[in-house]
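Hi Prof. W.,

I finally got the Fe2OG dioxygenase domain-containing protein prediction working! I wasn't sure whether to trim anything, so I left the full sequence exactly as given:
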Amino acid sequence: MATSELFQPDYDRKAELRAFDETKTGVKGLVDSGITEVPRIFHLPPDHQNLIESQPPSADGDHDHLTLPTIDLQGINDDPVRRKEVIGEVKDALESWGFFQMVNHGIPISILEEMLRKGVMDFHEQETEEKKRWHTRDMITNRVVYNSNFDLYAAPVTNWRDSFYCIMAPNPPEPLELPPSCRDIWLEYTKQVMKLGICLFGLISEALGLDPNHLMDMGCADGLALLGHYYPSCPQPELTIGTSDHTDNDFITILLQDHIGGLKIFYQDQWTDVPPTPGALVLNAGDFLQLITNDKFVSSQHKVVANKVGPRVSVASFFTTGVIETSKVYEPIAELLSEDNPAKYRAITLKEYVEYYRAKGLDGTSALLQFKI
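And this is what came out:
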């Protein structure tokens, strides 16, 4: 079917979304069935700019002059001079890119590899009937969730991606609540990434000129949710997208990606590739870090392209208190404000923000605009 036919009156998108959802087998189920064409619900609009960006990154592409900063965390707790240098690098990266890559972050490569293999790949590739046990669209009352597209019925385009989601802090699930295929590694990876997150919040606090404990005292590391994404190989990657362009609805995200690649960041008015680096992790600022820093640190648009090579797997660790029942209010940090730099956002709860974000879906616009003063 031609792309222009997608928007004909006889195309019942909602019915096709329901039919897809009711299979409970996600995008992987479509691929396993042997499809050779991408179903209409996954098609990008014909005039969508992402169409020209959907091919895998080229080794000699146009964006070679733009390289995501890589920060070496080696020695930051032992060498005050090195720590000061790293704080400056963190400040520069979060003010401009909103992203940076980390090496020597303290999490063993063996743990990273096991998390990708056992924690994500093994879950998504287990027996279909076993995987269906975890399928739900209720991300409020369920702490362990498997589905395809959290915003399936809200977003304008369905993404070529399945996900496994779990709230790991402040109240982690009991081991028996987690799927057997990934139980042990999810608990171990959570300990490791929480330790790293606490370290990073200290660096970010100091990069803001604040006490090292400032963001921790605000509760930025109180909540942690893990997402294991699975991007099956796509027969027509030029027609769809792995994850639509968006910003994250948290304080910070720590991303573990495999060797395939596909992550792109919108920087200096163009999409820039983030080639995978073995053993590295990617950090990005979320909307709530941009809000509490009053736009000093930026939550940048990013996306994941679809690819004929696959599956691609990744793990996103979201530091967010949106998973906690709390009435705590967040607003721009008073110490960062002045007569020349007044607050740009109203005080809100993270729950209010997350509810708006989920209802809006990944539509390419920033949810922060809703809360501007």
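DSSP finds nine helices and 14 strands in the chain. Does that look reasonable to you?

Thanks,
D.
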